[in-house]
Amino acid sequence: MREKAPAYVTCFCVPNKSGIKNFEYLNGRLSQWRGYSEDAGYAIEFDTSLLNQLLVCEATKDGDAKHRYMHGSLSAVAYYSELDKIEFHRDNDEDDTTEQLKIKMQELVSMFYAGKTDRKKQKDNVFMNQYMSKIGECAARIKHYGFHEENEVRIIAFASSKKHLEGIRAHNSAEIVSAPENIHYRTSDNAPYIILFKEDQCKTIFKKAVKGVIVGPGEDQERRIVKIRMLLTQHGYDDAVYVRSSNIPYLT
CA-CA distance, 152 to 28, in Å (whole number)? Predict the structure, then answer.
């Protein structure tokens, strides 16, 4: 029986910057406040380019591979329609999500035929794990069109299986540790989760990646702004990180 390696996904909502006076970008999306902030919430804005740097940082230490994931990426979600299962949709016409996904599928087909014609590859655990991780990556990026308003991007991390790590260690002299190192469990529903970017060099990039915090609709927004600013200062974030309140008149 083939060993299963867990996959972990975290999701982000991309705001629409083309609306009237950038309203959604400045104030957040009402459906997200309604869906995810029962007791008044907060939205954190990240620099996407630095999130990609963080993923590189997560997989390296002083230039050598430290954590080994079968796959790790920051990827846009493609939304499919029940009426047309071939075409994928994004709110941003300039987004190349569909093309990226097509390339991944082509790579998948090429790998399938390479394994089919090469029996040695069929028996190679590293090859098969890479093949399965590509299937998982494509599957993790597809969502029903009914959710398209979220305009979602995801960090996808597939932990390495024991056999995959054994194959890498046999051909690599660098220190390779299991990824993820520790699995935690959420108290509300016992769902497993992992903590990324724990290395000191990753923490430095993470602080730069945080651009600002929007205090969600609700009561006592001014008091909550002061609390968030104190929290940011306590953890070493500079004044360049903005803190502002959402002007959407919605009470949770």
Answer: 14
> Which residues in the chain show pLDDT less than 70?
1-5, 19, 39, 61-68, 70, 82-109, 111-133, 161-181, 251-252
SS (H, E, C) 155-216: EEEEECCHHHHHHHHCCCCCCCECCCCCCEECCCCCCEECCCCCCHHHHHHHHHHEEEEEEC
Residue 5 pLDDT: 59
Interacting residues of 95 by C-beta distance below 8 A, sequence separation 6+: 76
Report d(CA 76, CA 71) in Å as an integer.
15
Give the torsion sign (CA, 193, 233, 44, 212). Answer: negative
Taking the CA atoms of the chain, what radius of gyration do you get in angstroms? 21
Q: Which residue has the tokens 């990180």?
A: 241
Q: Under a CB-based contact definition with an 8 Å cutoff, are residues 222 and 244 in contact?
A: no
**Model's pTM, two decimal places?**
0.73
pLDDT at residue 93, rounded to an integer: 43
CB 161 within 8 A of CB 3: yes
pLDDT at 245: 93
CA-to-CA separations, 191 to 80, 155, 237, in angstroms, rounded: 27, 17, 30
What is the Cα–Cα distance from 19 to 24, expressed in whole angstroms? 7
**Per-residue pLDDT tens over the stretch 94-128:** 455 556 666 666 666 676 656 555 555 545 655 66
What is the DSSP code string of 41-105? Answer: -EEEEE-HHHHHHHHHHHTEETTEE-B-EEEEEEEE-EEE-SS-SS-EE-S-TT--HHHHHHHHH
> Which of these, 89, 98, 107, lies nearest to 149 by C-alpha position?
89
> How far apart, in whole angstroms, are the C-alpha atoms of residue 53 and residue 58?
9
